[in-house]
Structures are given as C-alpha cells and as structure tokens.
Amino acid sequence: MSTKDNSPDKSTGTNCRNARNQPHASDLTHFQVNILIILAEEDKYGLAIKRDLETYYGTEVNHGRLYPNLDDLVEMGLVEKTELDKRTNNYSLTSAGEHLLRNRAQYLVGSLDLEVSPRGESESNAVATDGGEM
C-alpha cells in the first residue's frame, strides 16, 4: 500500500488531509465515495463494482472512468487491491476507507437530525429523532 505525500493540492493550493495524513471526504469525488459505499457491503472485483455503479447511475460506466478512480483510492489507502488471477483484481475497503465513510455518514446524519441504527438492525427499528419513521 503506497502513501501519498502531504503536499498541497495543486488545483487549490490547499491540503484537506487530517493530522494523521488520512484523506478527508472532501478529497474525493462523489463517484469515488460511491465506490467506497459499494465496497463497504463486500469485497468485489472490478466488473462487479462497475455493474453496481451502472445500476446506481442508470447508465454505462466506462472502464476508463472506473479503473483510474479505483487506482486513486488504492493510492490514498482507502481501498486494497489484490490479484485474484492474472486478469482479475479484487478490491476491498481498508480500515481508513471505512473510517472515512463512517465520518461522512455521521456528518450527514447530524445535518439531517436523524438517528442511525447500527449495521444489522432492521430498518423498522430506525426512527428519526423527530419521532417519525424512516
């Protein structure tokens, strides 16, 4: 797993990494966050990720868009890439990727004033803080 340097972003001149040099959600595109969300469910190979993205977006996702973004996520330490065979790579969410998604979810939930049940609880038990069902 390679680590990216902590130099300022060339496009903005800013650096959004936290004190532990981990990427921040603002460093990622929505497309990259969607890849992380897909990998949070289970490890997948590239074409399975592509199919899930196509289902979500309702349109074709080009290889030329998917694989460079996967490589960027690997370089950031958010995704681990392993070789299944000579032509197929498997991708999995790292603990840093999971941490980033958890922080992003907590931010969104806080912004919407909702409560989230831990993974594994049924949705029928999840209730918004205003008392309404989700």
UniProtKB/TrEMBL annotation:
- Write down what this protein is called: PadR family transcriptional regulator
Q: Pfam families given for it?
A: PadR
The cross-references to InterPro entries, in alphabetical order and at most eight, read: Tscrpt_reg_PadR_N (IPR005149), WH-like_DNA-bd_sf (IPR036388), WH_DNA-bd_sf (IPR036390)
Its source organism is Haloferax elongans ATCC BAA-1513
Ranges for domain Transcription regulator PadR N-terminal: 35-102
UniProt cross-references to SUPFAM superfamilies, sorted A to Z: Winged helix' DNA-binding domain
Q: Where is this region: Disordered?
A: 1-23
Q: Which domain of life is it from?
A: Archaea
